[in-house]
## 1
Amino acid sequence: MPWINEGGNGGSWKPDPGGPWGQKPSAPPPDFEEFVRRTQEKIKLWMPSGGFGGGRGVLALALVGVIAWLLAGFYTVKPNEVGLNMIFGRYTGKTGPGLNYNLPYPIGAVEKLEVTDRKATNIGFTMRPDLRSPNSAIAVDQPEESLMLTGDENIADVKFVVIWQIDPVKPEDYAFNIANQRETVKAVAESAMREVIGRSQIQRILTAERQSIESGVQELMQKILNGYKAGILILQVQLQSVDPPEQVIAAFKDVTAAQQDQNRLRNEAEAYANRVVPEARGKAAAIVQEAEGYRLQTVAEATGQASRFNQVYEQYKKAPDVTRQRIYLETMEHVLSGADKIIVDQGEHGQGVVPYLPLGALTRPAEGARK
């Protein structure tokens, strides 16, 4: 409210009779005490001068009580909640966030459910406060929940967490169809995990099937809870750890190491075979090709020699003496061309041994020196 100063700096201050734009001021809000006083005066009109002893006084008090009781039926629903209205214990409908109304107790009742809040249920372990650090917690194993039998008759220590929430579409199912909802979720989760683990092998559980196990357990839990009409949505299943039992974990590690060695040696053997077999096949193919080439060469040489012999034979039939002399000379030339020779003249006027100068042998070193 604006204020005006009367009499300058030394004057007193009083409320401005006009609004900020010069309009007339609105009527002041009614005083609460005045409202109560007027209400009491109206009530006294219904009462005789002797007080509350008359019938009108009792009626007035009853009326006030009824009004107060009816006003008690207003309630507020938070944004993350849904209100379930009940009349004489029977469900009549649900209400959303905001101010709502239902007949108060003992006729009506309202149950509020946090439908958007996510809840977590631990199976196989529990979280307890750490006495050494007040702001932290430690996990405590629950072997009666975590030890499960696999499909290959091994034991696995499985710890996991289920994230769930109330179904916002059917919160009445959550409130009225099942009791001990958290315990029900935990029992269904343990049963579903045991069924999925019972169909799997320990080695696959520890390595490749973790994601498929999580999705399988989530689907199976949702199916069971839908059959119960539990009004619960399973949002996620998270495997925290999957290990062999503590009593046999050392032996299991030895078995795992042996299997890894077996796989490594098998891979090395396959790599060696992949390297050696192609080399052997290549060498075999080369030998076969060399043999084929030798066969073709030998056959070609034999064919050529037979053709040459036939040609010589044809010439021999035409001139036997000349051909015979020619064959003799060619043969002697072929035989004596690579041997040391001594020429002897056996004629009537021969001189015996004829001096022979091997000009070819003398010229070869010179030719080699020029090269």
Note: The longest strand covers residues 155-166.
## 2
Amino acid sequence: MKERAINPYALWLSSIRGVGNLTIKTLLETASCAEEVYHMTDDEISMCLVDKLKRRGDATGKALSIYFAQERDPFEEAERLRQKGIGFVSIEDDCFPERLRGIPDCPYGIYYIRDLPPDDVPSVAIVGARNCSSYGREQARVFAEKLALNGISVVSGMARGVDGIAGRAAVNAGGRSYAVLGCGVDVVYPEENGELYDILKERGGLISENPPGTKPQTKLFPRRNRLISGLADLVLVIEARRRSGTVITVDSALEQGRDIFALPGRVSDALSDGCNFLISQGAGIACTPESVIEHFYGVNESGTDMFEQKRKERNLRREDLSGMEKVLFDVLGCGEIMEPDFLIGRMESILGKHIDVEEFTSCMTDLQMRGLAAEVGAGHYKGIG
């Protein structure tokens, strides 16, 4: 997990049962930060909420919840979370995702395992039907793979169908893949994507605004969807019916000012109704992955597609490598920081044989000498080019 210091008071405030974004926002109109809320008296909390929340009974109940929560030790809670390998950032922190700060109903805080999508890297949310067709499955894989190869982060909801396929394809291509969950980050849902969950724990990221241990609930998924689009610069719809959960994500994306692209389909296919409708309403037409990639990178002065140029340059570098070096080069991808154990495991899975540390070190050293890999910190590596 990328180490970020946890603000104990923000974590404490975010985890109080029954106290949501609206209540926290109301408190912070009086207090300057979570730490001040923690030190407020019962009367101060009550006056703040009763004056500003419409329903006096609700305000009194929330005030009592906050007052009794002050008996908990924020620093102990932060340490327990850290020991579980779970991170937390709040809107009070500089490292809070910039994309989320400006969205309507921005979460006060989010939990994550391993990492969050970088602010300075393009990000695409790939969403679509759970019961997708063979056409949808293949296109989700192709788009996610090519976006990942071009250094674009892929965000999904890790649901069955399009979401899970896209998340897995991005990882397999050596790219960045992040899943926003409608439960706690320590809860695997759906169970059929348990393998993907485990992979994202090691390489990628798992994100939720719900406290750890929260079980999946129907009411949590529409709110989850606004974070999927919120963490992206563009939402790509692979397959969707006119009335579906995917459309909720699109509605959130439009409200947030995100760009929408949709994969066209046959007019006789119900699973393409939503996509074709979005296109008729002005969404970008995602005929190929390059059409989405060009949206971010455009074309160079000669008119050559930047993705195609980058792919050719990468393939030229790859041609001079030995078989094992090529596998390591492919597993490294571009830009993602990885640990040796993960890299060796991925290489063994691809090659179908055991790789000892000496073999790995020799391959990595050669890639570094060629300028195709770099060591980041102590014993972590990333691909270049």
Note: DSSP finds 18 helices and eleven strands in the chain.
